[in-house]
Amino acid sequence: MKLITKKILLVSFIFATTSFVLYNYFSKTEQTKTNEITHHNKHHKNLIPSSFDNLNSFENDDMVGAIKVNKNSCSVFLSLPKDKQVGTPDIPMLAGDMHRPCIDLNSVNNKQQFIKWLKNNFDVYLIQNDDGNKYGKITGYFEAEITGSLIKTDEYKYPIYGLPKDIIFLNKEDWPNKNIDFNLVGMLKNNKFIPYYKRDEIDAQKISAPVLAYGADKIDVFLLHIQGSGRILLPDNDVVRLGYAGNNGHKYKSLGRELISKGHLELSQASWSGIRNWIKNNPDKADEVLGVNARYIFFKKIQNNTNGPIGKMGVGLIPSRSIAVDYRKIPMGLNVWLDAQGIDKERIQRIMNTQDTGSAIRGWTRGDFFWGYGNEALKYAGKMNSEGFYHIFLPKVVRNNIMPN
To answer: In terms of Cα–Cα distance, which of 233, 270, 210 is closest to 144?
Structure first.
């Protein structure tokens, strides 16, 4: 009898212990699932499921440039392994998620086929900010075109530098501590790592860096820095294309805002042409004003001169079809439907591809419209500073990654 009682007690203890362990396991599992869903939903208040019917004037876009810009981006996706991460923390994606759509794109040659391709392969989402506002600032940029020379002369005397030999880039990806969320740029001096020279310091002394070309106008060279890439028109009518190679690590500061704050310009005058005219009319203050922007850009020669400047996606940008976005939020190489106001109050409604980014392009709804190169593009890019919003086309296969419910 005592033996049977002991066995019953032992079985009861085992059952109680097992139940406790299972309860805790499933409770934690359910809590983990809840946390995951909460984590996902926290992000996806920025992505609102929508449809092609909500794209204003969608059928009016001729789509010709859209097909070309997509084929350029697809050349990158198809060159990557399927398991290569190409997304963001908010929009997880693998290169393989775009392989099938990109293969299908090879047989697309006209507007009707392209629209069918979009509808077969992508879901549409409205992008909005954390506060629920869908509108953001849409600016314009272009590829600067300046006159220059490969040798220094009395006419061409303002250097355009490649990467300095003494500059050091400390990238967060290179460190095992993944909690580091910033990069550092600097140099070694007396065995100490210190910030690299500011713009006025670089202009005042000869740094240890290759000179890729010399410009004829210091304001033109400054404009080249602002745009981050450009074309140098040489005396023999040849062209050298320069692309972004790096910067000195200092924060960008807007000349327009500085001139407005000092009372030199009104807001309506703060286009690039207005800034240029003020500097030309006040040559004694040129160095001081230009030095306000401590950031300095270094360049590299782009060998392929037949395409546009190379964006972050790694392909030549296409005027009026490539857009710069915040790459920390939105993956490169995807389509967005832009709906924004142009410089003459007209609506710009068209397919754009996220092929580039920029140091000032931050946030879900921020965009920078690529206009092309030369004075005509400068006219549009310099004046564009409007309000707009966009929908994004995401591969259907990533739907569960971003909308777990």
So the answer is: 233
